[in-house]
Structures are given as structure tokens and as C-alpha cells.
Amino acid sequence: LAKTTQPISMDSYEGQEVNITCSHNNIATNDYITWYQQFPSQGPRFIIQGYKTKVTNEVASLFIPADRKSSTLSLPRVSLSDTAVYYCLVEGAFGTGGFKTIFGAGTRLFVKA
Amino acid sequence: SQTIHQWPATLVQPVGSPLSLECTVEGTSNPNLYWYRQAAGRGLQLLFYSVGIGQISSEVPQNLSASRPQDRQFILSSKKLLLSDSGFYLCAWGQGVGDEQFFGPGTRLTVL
User: Does B71 touch chain A (CB under 8 A)?
Assistant: First the structure.
């Protein structure tokens, strides 16, 4: 099964771009890469998902190289409210009718004024 | 719109006591349902998932069990709680494998 590795924590300042990289060396052909944001005592919230190359939505971009062994979440111009834990998730079908989802340990992002 | 409910929000239980956490989803049909546990300061661990009524897959062998008696109801149970069962339990739903998962508000369980 694919294991994900992320930095434990990162610091940034308001208005800066933040890039968080996740390593998933054993990702399978059919696996998707998804990123979630979690605030204390709340459930995670979906940010963005991709399979390969680049995906962009209104809040973030996701860069996935051709070998798909890593992915980078890019948050443009962060604000104090972006202080949270960011999880990289690899998920996909497994076996016959099975399913797997592997959450990383998460990256704690601190945004300072 | 879809909503997901979990209760109770917090729970303090003695070691050896039973457990029943309930999760219900509104506004969708035949969702995939998931139970996760998050230990303090840690990431999420998938415990169970279900693709339909009565269909439960277990990811981690332990003293917990799950049931799906109705399409939009998912129950996490234990006959005898352990200290190590303490944590933040999250229920989630999604439309299919790899689709966005929507998480409930969670239940914080403390086993003493």
C-alpha cells in the first residue's frame, strides 16, 4: 500500500505562497491524490484532487510530476485563517471491490501576521 | 443539500464499557460511508468503510465493529472499550471510490 510522507510543520507569513510536498513512492496506477484541510476539533475539508499534471481550483493548485511519486499543494497568498493541518491522501480501488485510503500524518501550517 | 450528523459530540466512558456511535447522512442515496479515528495530534486512520447496506469492510483488526442497518446510517460499536480507544472519531461519506469525502463534526471519546 502507498504510504505518504509530509513535513510535520511549516511556517509562513500572510500574503506568501505556501507549497507543501507529499511523498507517495508506492502509489498505484489507479490511485488518486487528494488534499484535505483540518481545523482543531473539526472534520477535514476537501481542498483539491488530482491524478497527474496540474489541477487548479479557486483555493489551491496541485502539482503532480509524471512519475506521480510526489505531489505539491500550493496555497497562493495565505492568510491567518489558513493556519490548519493539511493532509495528503492517496486512495483508490484495491483488489476486487475493495478500497484503500491512506492519510498522511499531516503538515501543521502556521501563518503569521 | 447533503448533511452528515454524528452523535454524541463528546463521550467519557470507563474501560470495559460498551460503545455505540451513530452517523447519519441526509440528502443523498447509496453513499459510501467511512469511520475514521484520530488519536491526539495524529493523522486519520480508516477503521471501516461501507459501500452498501450490510456491507462492511474492516481496515484495522481491533475490538471495534461497524454496522450499516440502513442506507444512510452507519454505527460504530464496541463491546468492551480499551484505554487505547480514546480519540476523535469521524464519520464521512462520499459518492464513490476516490471521490471527495464529506466529514461529520466528530465524536471525541475519552476512555478512563
Answer: no
